[in-house]
Specification:
This protein is of the alpha+beta class. The protein has helices spanning 7-34, 39-47, 66-79, 81-101, 104-116, 231-267, 279-307, 313-338, 349-359, 366-380; strands at 121-124, 140-144, 147-158, 165-171, 181-187, 193-195, 209-220, 224-225, 269-270, 273-274. The strands form three sheets. It has a four-stranded mixed β-sheet with strand order 1-4-5-8. The structure holds acetoacetyl-coenzyme A.
């Protein structure tokens, strides 16, 4: 066991921290209020290599390890988790799939621009009637010569408008159930693709979320990712890594709120002393610090396993479950410690609380993580 970061991991953490604390903080409240996409920040973070953090340098990525990814996403999410989800979806849900399952031609055409941050990726799995129950895909892809014709609707798509490369999961043979599902790389500007209105979300307001409609959209057969019928497995494998990203985001939301609450508790006085000296507040901070550390270790363990090439699906589900629940609890307590100030936007903790909620929902709800973990327990003891 070694609980120390390498020099490179520490340097990446510090770079992310500096950028978040100096740059993202300046306009995060305004972007939240206006639900404005962080275009300039994504450009700068691409220059720093964050949009292709996990991609091999051979494909224009920075090739950092997953432990560094956890550290960077935590630091960014302390300030702006909308930026973190854009980075996470690009790296873990789209670039990962292309790098692992794509042909050399697909990597050249689609992975490289994603890794450089010249283009952004989106992952299209969820549908109006297929959220948690992801096998129930209604979007169809019907073969027509050298093309597939896509019809259907995808819901809650992160970066739907800003992305230009979509990874779309669709049903190629409904009679085969999940074994008839296929993954496609789709260019957003293809004819037959339209977007629903910008979703007016509770939190993570500056990441753009839309429905995407496919109406006889024509996709070249050479854009199939992996093989026909492999799509559900690709989606599940991809989500295993995605959940490390969202767990790290939840961790960052929690630790950001905790740092603000601790600083406030040192400054604010009541009944003749700093409120941190009151046991009611001090014990809340003690619980927050302990639970945040536990969440961080779960994230780092899942990341380490992934970096070692070992199975990490159950561990990433545990990390996401625990970090998301911790984020919700810690941000709620951070608002409580701030009292009335916590309920206004200027102090940031109310926004962090709104953002925490989404980490319990997307990339598999907390209940889905419990299904994944409990099925593994069932199997282990059978
Ligand atoms: N790796 C590889 N294969 C897997 C797998 C994994 N992690 N999990 C399941 N599979 C395979 C199974 O082995 C099975 O294949 P076989 O029949 O060949 O054995 C097949 O997939 C079906 O598995 P299950 O019977 O376990 O499927 P299920 O219907 O019971 O559901 C589930 C499994 C884990 C609950 C899955 O439906 C799930 O993860 N649901 C949540 C979906 C989700 O996370 N959506 C998030 C949307 S993306 C998003 O939010 C992105 C964003 O923009 C931020």
């Amino acid at each position: 066991m070694n609980f120390e970061y390498t020099e490179e991991q520490e340097m990446i953490r510090q770079t992310a921290r500096d950028y978040a604390q100096r740059e993202l903080i300046k306009d995060v409240l305004e972007r939240d209020a206006k639900a404005e996409f962080p275009t300039e920040h994504i450009k700068k973070l691409s220059e720093l290599g964050f949009m292709g953090m996990l991609v091999d340098p051979q494909y224009d990525g920075t090739g950092f390890d997953t432990v560094s990814y956890v550290l960077a996403l935590e630091e960014i999410s302390k300030v702006d988790s909308s930026v973190a989800v854009i980075i996470s979806v690009n790296n873990s849900l789209v670039a990962y799939g292309l790098e692992k399952y794509g042909t050399e031609e697909q990597k050249e055409t689609y992975l490289k621009p994603l890794a450089r941050g010249d283009q952004i990726g989106a992952f299209l799995l969820s549908e109006p009637e297929a959220g948690s129950d992801a096998t129930m895909q209604r979007t169809t892809a019907v073969k027509d010569g050298d093309y597939y014709i896509l019809n259907g609707v995808k819901n809650w798509i992160t970066s739907a408008n800003s992305a230009s490369i979509y990874l779309v999961i669709a049903q190629t043979d409904p009679s085969l159930g999940h074994k008839g599902i296929t993954a496609f790389i789709v260019e957003k500007n293809s004819p037959g693709i339209t977007l629903g209105p910008h979703e007016d979300k509770m939190g993570m307001r500056s990441s753009d979320t839309h429905s995407v409609m496919f109406n006889d959209a024509k996709v070249p057969a050479k854009n199939i990712l992996g093989e026909v019928g492999m799509g559900f497995k690709i989606a599940m494998k991809t989500l295993e890594g995605g959940r490390i990203g969202i767990a790290s985001q939840a961790l960052g939301i929690a630790s950001g709120a905790y740092e603000l609450a601790a600083k406030y508790a040192k400054e604010r006085k009541a009944f003749g002393k700093e409120i941190i000296k009151h046991q009611g507040v001090a014990f809340k901070l003690a619980d927050m610090a302990t639970e945040i550390d536990a969440a961080r270790f779960l994230c780092l363990r899942a990341a380490w396993l992934k970096d070692q090439g070992k199975p990490f699906g159950i561990e990433s589900a545990m990390a996401k479950l625990y970090a998301a629940e911790t984020a919700m609890k810690v941000t709620t307590e951070a608002v409580q410690i701030h009292g009335g100030y916590g309920y206004v936007k200027e102090y940031h903790v109310e926004r962090l609380m709104r953002e925490a909620k989404l980490t319990q929902i997307y990339e598999g709800t907390s209940e889905i993580q419990q299904i994944i973990i409990s099925r593994a327990i069932d199997e282990k003891f059978s």
